[in-house]
Amino acid sequence: PMPSMPATDRKSIVELYQRTGQAKIGAVNQYISDLISGGASKFLVFAHHLAVLDGIETCLKELGVDYFRLDGSTPAAQRQEGVDRFQTDENCRVALLSITAGGTGITFDCGQYR
Description:
The chain is an alpha/beta fold. It has helices spanning 7-37, 50-63, 76-88, 99-102; strands at 43-47, 66-70, 92-98.
């Protein structure tokens, strides 16, 4: 068994973990911008941290890119609607997905990958 850890140490580890996600936002947004400007028609973006999802969503809005987002707060009824829109609407270019909510049980067969 793992030794117990003081609550302050656990809190510090969680905070550092969240900061690692936040530190990635700029580079991820640059890569997404490069994909968009390079002509990628459709692609999926997976992230774990909500702060990263929020940062990417802000970037997509600033770029004027049509996308759909699926995370743990997305109501079940809207999940399939978003997937269907990504699959069938040529203007919906990005599926922004949390790893936990979008990682299983969903079929995406129209995204490009590199």
